[in-house]
Amino acid sequence: MEHIEKSIEVEAPLSTVYNQWTQFEEFPEFMEGIERVTQIDEKRLHWKAQIAGKVREWDAEIFEQIPDQRIAWRSTSGATNSGMVNFESVGADRTIVRLKINFEPEGLMESIGNAMGVVSGHVQGDLERFKQFIESRGTETGGWRGSIKGRKTSNTASADSQEQTRSARIRNQSS
After folding, report:
1. CATH code, 2-170
2. Where are the domains positioned within the chain?
3. Can you spell out the DSSP letters for 109-123?
4. Could you give the 3-state DSSP secondary structure of residue 107?
5. pLDDT tens digits, one per residue of 49-99
6. What are the distances in angstroms from CA 33 to CA 25, 94, 130, 162, 175?
7. pTM score
8. What whole-number distance in Å separates Cα of residue 145 and Cα of residue 67?
9. Closest Cα partner for 54 from 31, 79, 29?
10. What is residue 39's three-state secondary structure?
């Protein structure tokens, strides 16, 4: 299993950055090679990507999600991967995103690409595009404020945070 850790500082409030990261279906907007992410339910996602010239698909499960702190996942079928993204406020309008990814390269091309730092470069590029995406918008496109701990899911979003997310979506649609 290979391991990559990258981080980036984003000029946006913690809750804005976290909320945007929960919008998984928008990942193709800033993640290179990701063709589609389909959110099946609060915990399960289906991914389709182009990796080393091959189409790869996998299902993933979020097993830990703590609003404004962390999202952790693991694949349940297809391409073997897992990881965690942590969010840390470093000021009113600054957030550090720390991404850790574990994956199993498949085949010679992926192994060579990984050894040459290609995957690490893609991950850093994805973070930089995420930073550009959220900073250029100035607000998130939505957000899910529920929690996941193992098999337990709770939508603990307050009425205020739900209204803020709804208001952000309305602002974005009118832009």
Report:
1. 3.30.530.20
2. 2-170
3. HHHHHHHTTHHHHHH
4. helix
5. 997 788 999 999 999 999 999 999 999 999 899 999 999 999 999 999 999
6. 14, 28, 14, 32, 28
7. 0.84
8. 6
9. 79
10. strand
